[in-house]
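Weekly structure sync, notes
Attendees: PL (lead), two postdocs, one rotation student
Agenda item 3: pending single-chain targets
PL asked that the sequence for the first pending target be pasted directly into the notes so everyone works from the same version. It is reproduced below exactly as submitted, 360 residues in total.
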Amino acid sequence: MRKFICLYFAFLSLSSFAQQLKPTVEVKEIRNSLHLAQDIQKPYTSDSLYLLTTYKNIYRSPEMGLTNQWGLYYNEKTQVAEIVIRGSVNRGISWLANYYAAMVPASGTFYLTPNQPVTYQFSEDDKASVHVGWALASVYLLQDIKPKIDSLYRANHKEIMISGHSQGGVIAYLITAQLKQWQKQNILPKDIQFKTYTLAAPKPGNLYFAYQYEKEMNQWSYSVVNTQDWVPEVPPTTQRFKDFTPVSPFSQENIDKGIKKISWPKRWFARGIYNRVNNPTEKSVKRYAKLLGPFLFKQINKTLPDLQEPTYRQESNYNRCGNPIVLDGLQNEAYQKQFNKPENTMSHHLPNAYLFLLGE
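Predicted structure, written out during the meeting:
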């Protein structure tokens, strides 16, 4: 009987850890992720971090790629691990990674050296495109992240959160997307449960990337934004008629067909209006792809001389993605007094502003 009772309580203990993560928003998880984002940027003492989050930092990667870094944190109470992606730092080519904003296909190959091709797949949709700088950063980081996930799984840890603030948040989208694809390809076990919080993150890719990401993650990914934070508004976006899905009456193909059906005088007038609307957007995308693609790659290549330049897409139709958690301090006098500092462009962006709006 005594042995049975021991086994019974052991089972209860194991079952209590069987599924800690839920497909819903948990404010405590968001708070923890914000504190971890601060820790990887500027570490707390280990005791302070534990008191704030009950997490311990068990691994911190070296800097790699575009001056990127990630950390692995572990909560002994819940047996949940959290992958935290560091945001931008004011050195190296960290900020160039943000400005390197041409688009590339969401599936393809980067040549980190002429003899080191790395295949990636952030989406199964051929129309999906992503930000090249953050895609590159993700590919570098994933080479270090995957072995740690394999080690966690061998130790029977199957619940993993992924988070990041700012640049770290947008890279967290792409890291998550690749891990989900690896699960579908049996490169990672399907019974690992991932849950993602992106904090103050920019837009990672086009609408087709967002569609597939949200379909794959469903209620397991949340985008936490502050309405006064400018960072989730970037990169700058241009939508053209050719960016619409082909069945849309606004698609370039269907507009061309419609104009051809009009009698000559009206057709000339309609074509003139169409060109006045369409041509500026086409020129904008071409300039965008040239200046934020090849021009910036030359600067990045000075630090990473073996990196081969990828092939870009002539596109800049960026969209937000993930289930939005909107924090709004516009009517909060205490928040405005403390954080509405026009001279400081980052006052609404930093984790402390988000923590305040969460009630901490």
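Discussion points:
- The chain has eleven helices and 13 strands.
- The radius of gyration is 23 Å.
Action: rotation student to compare against the earlier draft before next sync.
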